[in-house]
Amino acid sequence: MADFVNWTMSLQIPIIYLTICITIPSMALYIAQIVTIVRHKQFHNSFFALFVMRAITDLLGVLGNFYGYRLPCIIGAVLYQIYSQFPNWMLAIPLFLSGHTFQANNLVTILILLNRLTAIAMPTKHEKMWRKLLPFLTIFVYCMPILTCWPVFKMNAIILMAAPNSTIDGNFAISEAGDAPYIHYNTYISTVFSVIFMILCVLINIATFVAYKLHMIKADINGNTFDDIERKLLIYALATFLGHLLFASIFLIAIFINMIDPTIMVVVLVYYPLVMDTGTVVLSSWLLLWASGNFRQQLAKDFGIIRINKAQTIRVGAQEGARNRPNSGDACAYLRQSRAQIRHSEHFLVLKLLVPRDAVSHQISSEKQELAETMPGATAPTME
């Protein structure tokens, strides 16, 4: 077992870099999705409101983990002088955010599953009911976890160096002095919420499955079909539930391992960021692009993905037009010829406007007579 623990510890930094590579694009996508939902009224409905609610908790949870764990593990030598000046409550923020966002995330996931259940069971009253409940639910989701997590600010936070005797490795970790009572408190509270979350979600999923079957039976009788968008959103809710279930199970695993052998708890800590990011930010953000085609198209329009393609098309067209233009010598010759024609036309027009027609006719008649006397058989020009 000791060899396995040592091997896992050797993967700590590579796993952190892996999570950074998959999490940063997902967080950027999450933020872009929030902006798109806020900007366009067509997405101002209960499902997308709950999506934004969960996106905020996911982002805060990941940022808190960066602040308290990942950055000190990879650039601790740079951050140590800064973190060592922080007051106790600032060092307790990562632990508070981990507990608060985890509990809030579970609550929003339950609400999303309920939202899909009511969309099937009562489609006519569904949206109106949720619009009335959303303000209260928002306050409940963000404020209720504060009641259970605020005691962690009492912790006696300390900074533990990864290699105290090393002059090269300056990485560190934020921990708690003594027996770490508040860290254990936060872990047990999260474990209790995990159990409640799993039970409620399983019951809601069973009810949703029954409601879906009944709806399909009625649809077959009445000749109606289930909306493809609603079906995809239902699949999205179930898939993201599985991701959050994976994240919630890590606390149960931690309690179980701690009961068997506390020395291997470090294994859970090493894999915690990867499980958290995959089950929350990555799955929830990217899967929505599949679930809603209209949202995907609007997101592309808002952030210039289509404009880039159009700009490339215009650029190619301009290059093709440049190839079809004449060379510089032909262009100059054509320009001189055009100018000569213009000058000739202008000269004739001015002459025609300024000289009276009778005078011109008299002049032409005189020229005819002179030409006939000097050169019999020749003809003089006529006036057009």
TrEMBL record:
Keyword check for Nucleotidyltransferase: no
Gene Ontology cellular component?
A: membrane
Q: Which GO terms describe its biological process?
A: sensory perception of chemical stimulus
Recorded topology in the membrane:
Multi-pass membrane protein
Q: What is its main location?
A: membrane
Q: Return the SUPFAM superfamilies for the record.
A: Family A G protein-coupled receptor-like (SSF81321)
Q: Does the keyword Phosphoprotein apply?
A: no
User: Which of UniProt's keywords are assigned here?
Assistant: Membrane, Transmembrane, Transmembrane helix
InterPro entries xrefs: 7TM_GPCR_serpentine_rcpt_Srg (IPR000609)
User: Where can this protein be found?
Assistant: Membrane
- Molecular function GO labels: transmembrane signaling receptor activity
Q: Where are the transmembrane segments?
A: 15-35, 89-113, 133-153, 188-212, 233-257, 269-291
Q: Which Pfam families match?
A: Srg (PF02118)
Q: Which PANTHER family match?
A: SERPENTINE RECEPTOR CLASS GAMMA (PTHR31552)
The similarity comment for this entry is:
Belongs to the nematode receptor-like protein srg family.
Quote the protein name from its UniProt record: Serpentine receptor class gamma
Organism of this sequence = Globodera rostochiensis
Q: Recite the lineage of the species.
A: Eukaryota, Metazoa, Ecdysozoa, Nematoda, Chromadorea
